Amino acid sequence: MTVVGPFGLGVRDHALEADVQAGLAAVESGLLEATKSGVSFITEAAQHLVHAGGKRFRPLLAMLAAQFGDPDAPGVVPAAVVVELTHLATLYHDDVMDEADVRRGVDSANTRWGNSVAVLTGDFLFARASHILADLGPEAVRIQAEAFERLVTGQILETAGPVDGRDPVEHYLDVMRGKTGSLIAVACRFGAMMAGADESAVDILTQYGERLGVAFQLADDVLDIASDSHESGKTPGTDLREGISTLPVLHLRAQAAADGKPDDLELVELLDGDLSDDARHAEVLRRLRAHPALEHARRDTIRYAQEARTTLAPLPEGYAKSALEELCDAVVHRAG
Questions:
Q1: Per-residue exposure over 73-97, b if at least 16 CB sit within 10 Å of its own CB, e if not
Q2: 276-302 in b/e burial notation, b at 16+ Cβ within 10 A?
Q3: pLDDT tens-digit profile of 309-320?
Q4: What angle do CA 87, 92, 93 make, to 5 degrees?
């Protein structure tokens, strides 16, 4: 069993492993080709995050989904490149909005070259993705456009916050379905569709991708609080320090508002204070780790992962289906 993707995913069939490895290698070459420009500075900026690496989670899903048709079909790799380019472009823009200093262990593009270059580089990647997409046909263009609209809508809703009377947790889950789930769903959809899988399989894999995408993000929310830096690869409580209200925090706020317990209200007050203070930050992290809100968020993560796994049930048994199920198990494992 060899590791071929994120979370130590192992593939138990040599033929499938070879297909997936070859597909991911072709995607990597495609990413480098797509990010070349006649202007050397643009190439350097556009390839900055490509060279920084990453899980290539979306291309992996496209390769696995393609196993339900012809994985060697000519559109599979270009479609996976389109999805990953789109994802990379959003990272350039996210780092500007979040004023991030580091991305994937290297200086973020906005830190290195400034916000204008980072935004324009993201736009350049979107343009290159569209160029590849045009050769995949009008249906692929429509699917990508709809997914990108959902992604941007999710980002706007996250920035705007819930309207009065809307449950903040439900608002947040809607944001995750759009911001994260939509593009992961497209990775699965493109992989299956370009491989010529039947319509029912394409639909099942699309639903699977969206649910897995939400579970994947919620697991990150849990890890930000529950893990140490060795386990998660980043400093614990990063989202807390940046004032991002992730799912455990939203559950805490809801419980404090409903029950009015002094300890919960005090913790909310601490959260609303200056978490750049290391002692205050450590105290909030310690108390959140012991709070039922964290377990509530963990249960939500597991529920989405289990729903993703259940969605796969009608697909034929085989190594590809087992690998997709293992990804659900891996997300549950990450969430504890």
A1: bebbbbbbbbbbbbbbbbbbbbbbe
A2: eeeeebeebbebbeebebbebbbebbb
A3: 999 999 999 999
A4: 95
What are the φ/ψ torsions at residue 313 (nearest 5 degrees)?
A: -50, -45
CA 332 to chain centre: 15
pTM of the model: 0.91
Tokens of 202: 């394409």
- Which tens digit of pLDDT belongs to each residue from 14-52? 889 999 999 999 999 999 999 999 999 999 988 988 888
Q: What SS3 class is residue 242?
A: coil
Q: What pairing do the DSSP bridges indicate for beta strands 102-103 and 2-3?
A: unpaired
Amino acid (one-letter) located at 211: R
- Amino acid symbol at 183: L
Residue 155 exposure: Cα atoms within 13 Å on the Cβ side = 16
Q: What angle do CA 163, 164, 168 make, to 5 degrees?
A: 65
Amino acid at position 24, single letter: L
Alpha-carbon span 334 to 63, nearest angstrom? 23
* Partners of residue 107 on adjacent β-strands: 102
